[in-house]
Amino acid sequence: MLLATSLALFALGLLGVIVRRNVLVMLMCMELMLNGVNLSLVTFAQRTGSAAGAVLVFLVFVVAAAEIAIAIPIVLLLVRRRKLLDLDAYADLKG
Amino acid sequence: MIETWLLWLFAATALVGAALMLVLRHPMRVALALTATMLSLAGVYALLGVHAIAIFQVLIYVGAVMVFMVYAIMLLDVRDRSYVRRFSRLLLPGFVAAVAFLGILVHALWRSLPADVAAGGGTTRFALQHFSAAFLGEYWLHFELVSVLLVAAVVAAVAVLETGRRNRD
Amino acid sequence: MSHPLAPIVLLPLLGFLLNGLLGNRLGKRFVSAVGCGLPILAFLASVRAFMLLGAGGGAPLLDPAYTWALIGGSSFDVSFYLDTLSAVMILIVTGVGSLIHVYSIGYMKDDASYARYFAYLNLFLFFMLLLVLGRSLLVLFAGWEGVGLASYLLIGFWFEDPEKARAGKKAFITNRIGDAGFLLGMFLLFQALGTLDADRVNAAFMAATPPAVPASLVGILLFIGASGKSAQIPLHVWLPDAMAGPTPVSALIHAATMVTAGVYMVSRLSGIYTHAPEASALIATIGVATAFFAATVAVVQTDIKKVLAYSTISQLGFMFVAAGVGAYGVAVFHLYTHAFFKACLFLGAGSVIHALGGEQDIRRMGGLARRIPVTFATFAIATAAIAGIPPLAGFFSKDEILWYALASTAGGSPLLFAVAAATALLTAFYMFRLLWLAFLGRSRMSAEVEHHVHESPLSMTGVLVVLAALSAAGGFVALPNFLGPLLPLPGVAASLEPLETPLLVLSIAIAVAGLGAAAFVYAGEGVRAERLRQLLAPLHRLLASRYFVDEAYDAVVTRPLLWISDRVFLRLGDRTILDGTLHGLAALGRRAASGLSGVQSGSLHRYALLLLIGIIASVAWMLRHG
């Protein structure tokens, strides 16, 4: 059941990335994905009792924190230039 | 018994929060929904017996990440184009793909179900001592890498600050 | 000597190489010495080979040169073969050829491409000798093609003039059409007999059990090739245009040697033709038709060389008549006498043209007999020879042809004889007309041309004298008897035997009648000729336009071919299909690329969706193959 929940969280997070327009909301959905993964890691770690699972969870925490520390300033700088939080405004890398 | 109930409750809350994240319009409300989800997950971790991780969840995720997020939302003017039309053009294809995704994963899960199904019956207790010993002993490399990652993050943040300052001047 | 025949072929080749590569640098003297000396040496070698043949009691000489190819189980050799027939041919080719080379020294003296001329002339001799001496039909064909090439090069010698270049092309292409038939004949022969050696082919057809392939089919196919080379109907159209080349070339190639290659080939393969009555009948019919038709056209031609060209076509027709009724030896005899008097006539015409500074229209000649007496005398002798006045050479050969056309048991008929006799009459008529209009009567030349008329140098007149002498005396060599063992004469219908002597008298009468008629029509101011022409104006127009054959070919063959080339192959095939396919492929690539580049839209949403789809796919894969 817990695993199903983690799957659902992950899927919802990915759906949110695809579906929402606001850049900040997309970032938050990515956090949601990470949380889903964390839940499944914890479930397995607790079940098997291996320390590796817990270590990985810790790593994910750190990564999430580092990621958000960089991502938000980037968004801030972008928005300062374009004045828009809509992702479609930043489709410059068109092929 | 109560534990199972609480587990179900927290799990449900997490899911509801996640679902709300997708439909709410104002980013601030989305942030609040995410915070709710994270707290519910912390509760789940606590119920599972991994208290250290539950604490870390609250500290790091809610305390640092979400706060930072809220700061950003407050700083920016969120009532723009993405407020009016919150869903991208790929709403339908994304929804279909997500359903397919869930379907396939649940199918995979169903096929390879681990021994104990239901709400996890924690057989072994999580011990902080064991965890710390393992972290600094067997997984010392990961530990060091974590520090490197944090340093990198700090440097990046300072760099962004500098760029910002230079642009402003 | 182990290789008696190879030098005959190789000496002219050496001449070609020397003159072609070094001639321009080493001056006219060198070119003349090499260009004439080597053919003369070849002539001496031919004489020697001839004597060797006689010394060996007539047994053929065989000179294997080298193995050309080994394909499957068959070996294709280049070897030279001398029997009485080829001995006669090489003597004619090298003998008359050398004389014409000497003549060319004087004729082409002022030409800028002197070295190139002699190089090509020697090249021609090389190929012609290869043709004659080759044992295998394959070597003969190589020589056949080679003389076609040399002919093209020499007809279009002054290639800066597009008309002359076009004449060269016409000759080559018409030859090639005939060669298609030749090749098919060769293929059939090889498939049935496994060999292309002429003597073996003849033996196979003369054997008790004939080979699997019908002789007439092979005979007709090979004759198609011969008619291309020897200008018979319907492939005769190139010979009159070939007069665009220098006159010695016309003498050598289009009178004495190359055009006779067809007659030689038919005689060489007499084994096939004696057993192919349908093919022989075809040859005789086409021969006599060509002879008559060409003679009628020659009557109204106004260019001196064109008269001689049509005369050549007509005389070749005579040779084929003889071959068609089985008298191959007689055909070769006429070939031999024709070489002498026709070469003399052409070279005489060249002398006239040289004297008049380039004038070739006989309506603007006349009265030259006194001004250029040597040319006149030799021309007159040769004219009498071709008309068939005894005891000159032409009389003997023509009389034999007429006799066998009537009486041969292998296809002779009164109709054949009648047409041939009519042609002989016309021959005498138009030749004397030519003589009269060019040399006799009042002068119709322009004043300044008349002022410059002079006799040709000794190198030219000397040759004329030699050829005239041969035209006079050559007939006394009993060639058909000499060739008898190899080419037996056909039987004569018993009922017609007593007519032999009356026929002799008749042919003399025909010759004299023709001369008389021409004298009558063209005497004086030519008033009667003018009246005759007005009387028969439509006929005159038909003849003057050469029966509109060229125009017919243009409409039926050339224009549709050009249309097909333009419409079907150029526009449809090349532009639409080929270019279209290539452009289409390129456009396809372009459109595919632009379609695929839509993936890079710059929109993160799309990227995330693609990510999701990829994950689903990989999970599904793992589930299936896990």
Concise overview:
The complex is a heterotrimer of chains A (95), B (169) and C (626). In chain A, 80% of the residues lie in helices and 0% in strands. By secondary structure, chain A is mainly α.
Instruction: Decide which structural class fits the backbone of chain C.
Output: mainly alpha
Count of separate DSSP helical elements of chain A: 3
- Characterize the main sheet of chain A: none
The number of helical elements of chain C comes to: 25
Tally of extended strands of chain A?
0
* CATH domain class name of chain A: Mainly Alpha
Tell me roughly what share of residues is in helical segments of chain A.
Answer: over 70%
Q: Please state roughly what percent of the residues of chain A sit in beta strands, choosing from under 5%, 5-15%, 15-25%, 25-35%, 35-45% or over 45%.
A: under 5%
Termini distance of chain A? 43 Å
Helix percent band of chain C: over 70%
The unreliable regions of chain A are: none
Mean pLDDT of chain C: 84
Radius of gyration of chain C: 30 Å
Distance between the termini of chain C: 90 Å
Task: Tell me what you see in this structure.
Chain A has helices at residues 2-19, 23-48, 51-82. In chain A, 80% of the residues lie in helices and 0% in strands. In chain A, helix 1 packs antiparallel against helix 2 and helix 2 (23-48) packs antiparallel against helix 3. With 95 residues, chain A is mostly helical. Chain A has one domain: Helix Hairpins. With 169 residues, chain B is an all-alpha fold. Chain B has two domains: 2-126, NADH-ubiquinone/plastoquinone oxidoreductase chain 6, subunit NuoJ (Four Helix Bundle (Hemerythrin (Met), subunit A), Up-down Bundle); 127-169. Chain B has helices at 2-23, 27-48, 51-75, 81-84, 91-111, 128-136, 140-168. Chain B is globular and about 55 Å long. Residues 116-121 of chain B have low confidence and may be disordered. Among the domains of chain C are: 1-135, no CATH class; 336-524, no CATH class. Chain C has helices spanning 6-55, 84-107, 114-133, 137-155, 162-193, 198-206, 215-229, 238-241, 247-256, 261-268, 270-274, 277-298, 304-324, 328-355, 373-387, 393-407, 414-439, 447-452, 458-473, 479-483, 500-522, 527-535, 537-544, 549-596, 604-625; strands spanning 61-71, 74-82. Chain C has a two-stranded antiparallel sheet with strand order 1-2. In chain C, helix 2 (84-107) runs antiparallel to helix 9, helix 13 packs antiparallel against helix 17 (414-439) and helix 14 packs antiparallel against helix 19 (458-473). Chain C is globular. The chains are: A mainly alpha (95), B mainly alpha (169), C mainly alpha (626). The interface between A and B is large, with 68 and 87 residues.
